[in-house]
Write a structure and sequence with these properties.
- With 462 residues, this protein is an alpha+beta fold.
- The chain contains 14 helices and 10 strands.
- The chain has 3 domains: 155 residues, no CATH class; 164 residues, no CATH class; 81 residues.
- It has a 5-stranded antiparallel β-sheet with strand order 2-4-5-6-8, with helices on one face. Strands 1-3-7 form a 3-stranded antiparallel β-sheet.
Length: 462
């Protein structure tokens, strides 16, 4: 039963504890770039800035561009609603918040789990989340935690665990140490958003009654999938996010409790060592084993009995100190997680799908604008550089623009034309006609001609 104990990150140990099949399945969604792809600017602010950029001269053209972006938003909203429904459907059998325990065939359950993972990865990718790599979390494992509490996690409880993050920055933090007398300041890397995907092992793979009892105490249903969304989590504190993480004593805590216990317990044991034999003699007399007991022996027996009571009280007092210290550490963990936990399980889907839709719209707006206002067909690399430079100049934001995602979204709608390596888009008036036709085919009239021709828009999200 591999336990993970430490003050830092845990994903590295999780990967080592999984089988080769699980390691392959848990490869990162994408490599973490030096710059994030997340666009931390409001959609309305980007749209206003593009219109004010100066490339759209007349008021009529500006109105056309606004209408174009509004229809794009409506189309993407419709598509992402379909993805949201697929996520909810696939998550039904794994939702730990359901009152009952839905049952289905094992083959169906495996297929549904694969659909859940695939759909979740798609929406995380579109929302510009990045899966934490093995190397990144290995660095976190070696860092000092912002919350100075050691935790232990039993990895055998999980079928699969994955971490995703979006956005990151550095903060100067103070950590209370030595009972608050010292508060050293250090720099910590903080993830703006973290999504934890933790799949518990199915019931059939849990043979131990002790393990089942332990999971029941923590209200963790075998076979369920826990999805948690956090904000502002320090990289070194990822270990505290595990659903079954429990507090363990650090070396300092053990010394803090053990040294007084030894110092106080030794005198009591020395006194007992000289009188405890007399106590057994007196007990033997009352049981009919010994013939007689003198007054001195009776006094020594009473002294020994008092010593045993004192020893019991001392042990109880040390146990209370241990429990109080554990509770104090647990409160630190709970406070750190409680105020950073934004949503859980099925409730996370609405946020992630909304975030993916928002990011997709901003990427499409930017790509279409800079292609439509270019003097000649533009290459993919040049387009990405122009957008990144404009965002840096306009909003003082440096990102790694997801040009492939943006072009795929426009290309799926039939808006990209290629001339060798050059890319272009139709003018706004033709684009509006194309988008209007796509929107109309989402809800076609049930005529024979309409029923015979399928909608031109693919339903697969890119």
């Amino acid at each position: 039963m591999p336990w993970l104990i430490g003050m830092g990150g845990t994903y590295g140990e999780t990967m080592r504890s999984m089988s080769p099949r699980d390691q392959k399945r848990s490869e990162p969604l994408m490599a973490a770039p030096d710059r994030d792809r997340f666009i931390p600017i409001r959609k309305a602010d980007i749209l206003d800035a593009l219109i004010d950029h100066g490339r759209i001269a007349s008021g009529a053209e500006r109105d056309q561009f606004r209408r174009l972006c509004r229809i794009l938003t409506a189309i993407y909203h419709y598509e992402y609603y379909d993805l949201l429904e697929r996520l909810r459907h696939a998550y039904f059998y794994f939702d730990p918040d359901l009152d009952g325990h839905p049952v289905c065939a094992q083959a169906t359950l495996g297929q549904t789990y694969a659909e859940l993972v695939q759909s979740l990865l798609a929406v995380l990718r579109d929302a510009n989340f990045v899966e934490l790599s093995y190397e990144e979390v290995e660095r976190a494992r070696r860092e000092s935690a912002v919350v100075p509490v050691a935790t232990a996690t039993l990895l055998d409880d999980f079928r699969e665990v994955r971490f995703f993050r979006r956005g990151r920055h550095h903060e100067r933090v103070r950590t209370r140490r030595w009972f608050g007398f010292a508060e050293p300041e250090s720099e910590a890397q903080v993830y703006n958003a973290v999504v934890l995907f933790a799949a518990m092992k199915p019931q059939g793979e849990i043979a131990s009654k002790v393990e089942r009892s332990r999971l029941a105490k923590r209200h963790l249903r075998p076979g369920s999938v826990l999805i948690k969304y956090f904000r502002g989590v320090a990289r070194a504190d990822l270990h505290a996010l595990y659903p079954n993480a429990r507090v363990v004593m650090t070396t300092f805590d053990k010394l803090f409790l053990a040294v007084p216990a030894i110092a106080g317990g030794i005198p009591i044991l020395l006194k007992l060592s000289t009188t405890v034999t007399v106590l057994f003699v007196v007990i033997g007399f009352y049981l009919g084993v010994s013939a007689a007991v003198g007054d001195s022996e009776m006094k020594a027996a009473l002294a020994a009995l008092s010593g045993l009571v004192a020893l019991g009280g001392f042990i109880a007092r040390q146990w209370v100190k241990y429990q109080r210290q554990s509770l104090r550490h647990q409160m630190q963990i709970n406070e750190n997680i409680y105020y950073r936990n934004i949503n859980n399980n099925a409730g996370v889907f609405d946020y992630l799908v909304g975030a993916a839709e928002d990011q997709g719209c901003k990427e499409a707006f930017l790509a279409y604008y800079f292609l439509s206002t270019a003097d000649r067909p533009t290459g993919k690399t040049a387009l990405g550089d122009r957008i990144e430079d404009w965002l840096k100049e306009t909003f003082a934001v440096e990102i790694d623009f997801a040009v492939d995602h943006a072009l795929a979204k426009l290309d799926r709608l039939g808006l990209i034309s290629r001339d060798g390596t050059g890319l272009s888009v139709p003018p706004p008036e033709k684009t509006l006609l194309r988008l209007d036709d796509i929107w109309a085919n989402f809800f076609p009239l049930r005529t024979p001609a309409a029923a015979a021709s399928p909608p031109p828009l693919a339903t697969e999200l890119g």
